[in-house]
Design a protein that fits this description.
Blueprint: E1 4-5, E2 27-31, H1 36-44, E3 48-49, E4 58-60, E5 65-69, H2 77-92, E6 96-100, H3 104-112, H4 125-136, E7 140-147, E8 150-160, E9 163-171, H5 176-190, E10 195-199, H6 203-207, E11 211-213, H7 215-226
Parallel strand pairs: 1-2, 9-10
Antiparallel strand pairs: 2-4, 3-4, 5-10, 5-11, 6-7, 7-8, 8-9
């Protein structure tokens, strides 16, 4: 029911993705490879890879699309306390530090590690290699939370122009992934990035301010955003969160 992609086969239009009635809503195509050029072509067209071990590469374009507007990111009281602590530490050279792009491969491998109540991961060695290529080319970025120079949380994704495509997060201590995401969101907001693509709807993303939008609306915004100049200087800013 879906096309098989060879190395030089172009992606079909996203309107051809399967619907809920067809049993795999958003599934568009299978096959091809995870080269940097193929991945960039996918993201520029609102398509992303998602597949399990022992499956071929599967390409998706979900409708509706889950997005996180950077202006609507929700910060709980407990997270706000953590952010104030980390922010103070960053100002004084303390134990907690947030960094961007200093350990990209470590972040993606941490995201791929087994988790509680999960039997596997979609982040295969093929995914790691492809996204590390994108990082080397300046398209893939990581937000990292460090404690005493140990990586304890992070998030990563792809940025083209002023469009950020979120991929995954991990945490080894309380609120670590949310902290890394909060600094990333604050940075992106400063850089006039209005939406973070979250691909698929989850309750966790909704609790952070994520919401769905029709695929056509998402594609329209995305096309405008990726045409904007690329962000050239990735450095987290101090957030100075004050008590509510």
């Amino acid at each position: 029911m879906i096309p098989w992609l060879e190395k030089d086969t172009p992606f079909p239009d996203v309107s051809e993705a399967l619907t809920e009635a067809e049993g795999a809503p958003g599934l568009l195509a299978a096959g091809a490879e995870l080269s940097a050029s193929r991945l960039l072509d996918a993201y520029r067209n609102g398509i992303f890879p998602w597949f399990s071990e022992n499956q071929p590469v599967l390409w998706w374009s979900t409708d509706p699309r889950m997005v996180l507007p950077t202006a609507e990111f929700k910060i709980s009281d407990s997270l706000r306390k953590t952010l104030r602590k980390v922010d103070q530490s960053m100002r004084t050279g303390g134990r907690w530090q947030v960094r961007f792009d200093t350990a990209f491969e470590s972040v993606i491998r941490a995201c791929a590690a087994p988790r509680e109540r999960s039997s596997g991961t979609w982040i295969s060695e093929e995914i790691v290699a492809g996204y590390c290529q994108l990082h080397a080319l300046g398209y893939a970025h990581s937000s990292e939370l460090w404690l005493d120079n140990d990586l304890v949380g992070g998030a990563y994704g792809i940025c083209i122009g002023r469009m950020f495509y979120g991929e995954s997060m991990f945490a080894r201590t309380t609120d670590a992934s949310k902290t890394a995401l909060a600094y990333l969101v604050e940075f992106l907001r400063d850089q006039d990035v209005e939406l973070i693509d979250c691909q698929q709807e989850t309750n966790h993303l909704a609790s952070l301010g994520g919401r769905t939008m029709p695929r056509t609306t998402f594609i329209s915004h995305m096309k405008s955003a990726i045409a904007q100049p690329a962000i050239t200087h990735w450095v987290p800013r101090l957030m100075f969160y004050e008590p509510a």
